[in-house]
Amino acid sequence: MIPVIKIEDYCYDLPDERIAKYPLPERDSSKLLRYKDGKVDEFVFRSLPDLLPEGSLMVFNDTKVVPARLRFRRESGANIEIFCLEPVDPPEYNTAFASTSSCVWKCVIGNAKRWKGDILTLYNPDNSPEVAELDPRARLVGRDDRTGEVEFTWEGGHPFSNVLDICGSVPIPPYLNRGTEDIDIERYQTLYARVRGSVAAPTAGLHFTGRVLEGIRSRRIGVGNVCLHVGAGTFLPVKSAEISGHPMHREPFSVSLDLLRRIRDNAGSLIAVGTTSVRTLESLYYVGVSCIEKGVPEDVGQWVPYQRDHPYSVGESIDAIIRYLEKENLDEVKVGTRIIIVPGFKFRLVDVLVTNFHQPESTLILLISAFVGGDWRVIYDYALANGFRFLSYGDSSVLFRGDAIANSCEIA
Q1: What is the pLDDT of residue 85?
Q2: Coil, strand or helix: which one is 65?
């Protein structure tokens, strides 16, 4: 049954001056709020390892942000901004990035009403010879309410990844109300980013440094990576009065066979770094249900967790994915998810969450509320009253579920 939730109940007053417009000089010097057993206190982020239970397994999202924002121009002089979301032809990220003359992407198009379907040339105000040599063009293939399909063509035989590196800019969040600057190239990217594909950073990971990671390992906490490519839907506001009217965007993710085995054998808490890691890990349970009932992994629909009871244990679900991969001689599961996590959601894998502070009336606030049993206002009121910085470049939190110990035993 789809939960009845009014989005206005998840609003709070966020003054503009509390939004961090730039990162701090040191990644791990941000403030860290801890929520545990219904209580809130604060630390500095570099103290995180000491706050985590030994013997846990910590999971990161190693997706890498691509410079996916491109500025084109019509012959009339009108600027058209094109924000690449996901590849259409070819449909796989790796093959799309490797394309050497053309590809089609699903895009968000700024100033779209002024684009009449003519072929655009890239805006090159500095007369860059590299850009001139590539001569990128854009042609509108089709459009819907929010997005359009755009065919890109270019010269010189360079892979599309190089075209983006030379011609694109890092798509920092619109609520920063500024243009992309040199600092964003380094700092709007996690240290462990590896797999190209995201148009937004998994920002919970922006605080991690080498010394924090070393501290985590020194406490016998295992680490592993999933990869979920973050789409621009992370920026889209909830426009419906009730959450049932909000469509979640599909995000592709992959999890290795090795990590699936480690999750199955993990006897301690499972720690997710970021809401994208939570959505990936919790989606795995329903991917396993698909393997049990249909024999193959399938995409996870938005409301699948709420539509019926699922009687399988986490162990049975994860084992089903493992058996499928072993049978097919595959080393990772690759599917997509539209899962939405709201109050009433049954968490099956994640016990501890490291995350930033999110926008009012967002799906991420709903996720936080679900995770902490409705105590999100306690957390956010404390953060607002104690000088925490908000959103992508803001401070961090580590949140413990009240029933984490009981649930962590279900995997064994």
Answers
A1: 87
A2: strand
CA distance 251 to 157: 29
Q: Domains in the chain, start-ordered, CATH in brackets?
A: 7-65+188-408 (3.40.1780.10), 69-168 (no CATH)
Burial 100-127 (b: 16+ CB within 10 A, else e): eeebbbbbbbeebeebeeeebebebeee
311 touches 257 (CB < 8 A)? no
DSSP tag of 23? -
**Res 234: pLDDT:** 65
Cα radius of gyration rounded to whole Å, the chain: 22
Residue 10 and residue 360 in contact, taking contact as beta carbons nearer than 8 Å: yes
Number of residues written out for the chain? 412
- Chain segment 244-255, per-residue pLDDT in tens: 999 998 899 999
Q: What is the mean pLDDT of residues 106-133?
A: 89
- Six token digits for residue 352: 């501890």
Q: Look up residue 326 and give its amino acid.
A: E
CB atoms within 10 A of CB 400: 23
Q: How far apart are the first and last CA of the chain?
A: 29
d(Cα 43, Cα 84) in Å, to the nearest integer? 38
Q: Give the strand order in the sheet containing 396-400.
A: 39-44, 31-36, 396-400, 352-356, 270-273, 57-61, 222-228, 251-256, 332-337
Residue 375 has pLDDT above 60, yes or no: yes
Q: What is the Cα–Cα distance from 364 to 31, expressed in whole angstroms?
A: 20
Q: To 10 degrees, the CA torsion angle through 340, 344, 347, 350?
A: 70
Sequence-separated (6 or more) residues with CB below 8 Å from residue 176: 19, 21, 392, 393
User: What span, in angstroms and rounded, lies between the C-alpha atoms of 189 and 170?
Assistant: 10
Convert the pLDDT of each residue in 204-261 to its tens digit. Answer: 999 999 999 999 999 999 999 999 998 766 666 788 999 999 999 889 999 999 999 9
For the chain, counts of helices (H) and of strands (E): 13, 17
Predicted TM-score (pTM) of the model is 0.91
141-166 CB burial, b ≥16 within 10 A, e <16: beeeeebbbbbbbbeeebbbbbbbeb
Six-digit token pair at 49? 């390892």
